[in-house]
Amino acid sequence: MDCAAKFEKEVAAIPGVTRAELNFGASKLTVQGAFDPQAVYLAGTRHDIVARPAYEKGQEKQSFFAEYKRVIISGLAGCALLAGWVLQHTQGLTSAAILLYIAAMVIGGFSTARKAFFSIRKLNFDMNVLMTIAVIGAAAIGEWSEGASVAFLYSISNALESFTMEKARQSIRELMDIAPREALVRRNGEEICLAVDEIRVGDILIVKPGAKIAMDGKVIKGTSAVNQAAITGESVPVEKNVGDEVFAGTLNQEGAIEVEVTKLVNDTTIAKIIHMVEEAQAQRAPSQKFIDRFTAVYTPIVIALAIGVVLIPPLVFGRPWSPWIYRGLALLVVSCPCALVVSTPVALVSAIGNAARNGVLIKGGVHLEEMGSVAVIAFDKTGTLTVGRPAVIDIIPVTAKDEKQVLNLAASIEQFSEHPLAKAIVEKARQEKLALLPVEDFTSLTGKGARAKVKGKRYFIGNPRLLDELGMQTKETGQVVAQLQEQGKTVMVVGDEENIVGIIAVADIVRESAARTIRELKQAGLRRAVMLTGDNKATAKAIVEKAGIDEFDAELLPQDKVAAVNNLVNKFGKVAMVGDGINDAPALAAATVGIAMGGAGTDTALETADIALMADDLAKLPFLVRLSRATLSVIKQNIYFAVVIKLIAVVLIFPGWLMLWMAILADTGAAVLVTLNAIRLLRIKPELY
């Protein structure tokens, strides 16, 4: 992490570079300006970093030595150290042992010394400088085995740290490999295999069963089940028919389909997700900014203290130089806060990458940290807690012989209407496999209902107001209607010119996962769940009771929702708002964290919210809360561990109890441990139902 930051600064200083920005999590450097690319490459070599243009990524296969160089070097240094120790302590061959110790120092410390040389030229006393001084100093006072141990342990800790960081970065690499690099395309009547960069909007993809879809588009031929887990995190394949949208990187499981391309490769949903995840991993979270400020003060103080440990006892108190030089070297080794610096970014990289692979797009470390301390979650109703479309709930016969007769008559009339309630009735009739009756003289009654002739007889379907106008309202009917309306349902009455045939109640259905989600959120530590809706109080109350919501505000305009969110923030502290990302944009912006549902289908949701649930699935919320809280916990554990280890090491130096190899373990060993601790975040997964 420290080397990467120095590399970024060095590239920024190259003549002609106007901007250099390093994304540590994604291993990506963005450089702007008129500059010599070779200068960037050379800057990388000075920090043991391989830099190459993005377009060459993946084209060059590394040699075995290049891939395992750190491990090989550490192994050779370790062998030399072990051989030297054996010769010295079992054979008494001290001179031969010293030669092997020197070999271990050179092999294990060459790369560190090289980077130290470039750092010290810029008067930058980084970890490489401190380690090199420690090795040379140990040799100078005759502690050959200690110097060799320092070189070996630092070398192997660098190898382990590199390995663990690669593990953390793997989540973003897996995202990049999701979409295929080429596809079978029909163009000008010919079927050809093209690289995705050559595919244009309007091209037709031919996607066979078992193949991945290469580009975003819409199905124009065929039907299939598509596994969208890579984008949305959904475990169950989604049925796709003509006109449905499909995403690059998803897996066509059953039938062959043809897809018309709607977006270029750089504009696909997966490309946007990768870009946003990389940006999110590059952002500095509040805890990381605090650590940066802390280390800026801490490191110079400890280095000054190390110089004092070396000089004051011999010069002021007449103590021997050798033991205090040794203690000063040990203090120098523990002074560089590697574990502290890496403690936060590696946790954020792991958590954000893990979330993206499971269909949750977090657009920055700050939002992840904020989500971890949220006390209350506010929900929009329509399309969030409910499915967002009406469905028939109750059918009550009055003069009809049964429910099917009422439904068949109502659906026959409404089959010509485009009203959402009419579509719900027709859909219910289709589910019941009822054959719709022929209809004549259909007339829509705006705001009231519709009329039509069925089998030569005139019927109507409409709301209770239409019943009042026709003078057909009765006390019994009025009681039933009132009871249904109190339950939050929309009531429609079916009748002829003389009698009421039946009553149909329609309502927006609460999601099956809503109650379970609210329950799991409470178990995860949320204090309250609140619903904010523009709907009437009766409907809101019915939804709240079914979903297990603690409180609600109803009949709210968009500006009222913003005021309600602000009130919750004032009352409870940090508040998350969950909505569709479009209508609820002001409320999402007002909340501490704005969470959009169904981000995979809408660009607006991706742009407006701090966090997007890529599937239209509430069940991802408990996973998000568990992951964010676990991330906060890991960051705190890492910081406390790194600080405590440093303090213990510093205390042990003054009585002479801290050996150089122990100082190495206290520093770079701690960095490896906090990285391994952060990688545990990759194991947190959504619950499967």
UniProtKB/TrEMBL annotation:
It catalyses: Cd(2+)(in) + ATP + H2O = Cd(2+)(out) + ADP + phosphate + H(+). GO terms for cellular component: plasma membrane. It is found in: Cell membrane. Coiled coil: none annotated. The chain crosses the membrane at residues 71-87, 93-113, 294-317, 329-353, 639-658. Keywords: ATP-binding, Cadmium, Cell membrane, Membrane, Metal-binding, Nucleotide-binding, Translocase, Transmembrane, Transmembrane helix. One of its GO terms (molecular function) is ATP binding. The keyword GTP-binding does not apply. The keyword Repressor does not apply. Its main location: membrane. Residues 179-278 form the P-type ATPase A domain. Pfam families: E1-E2_ATPase, Hydrolase. It is a multi-pass membrane protein. Its EC number is 7.2.2.21. It is an enzyme of class 7 (translocase). Belongs to the cation transport ATPase (P-type) (TC 3.A.3) family. Type IB subfamily. This is Cd(2+)-exporting ATPase. It comes from Thermincola ferriacetica.
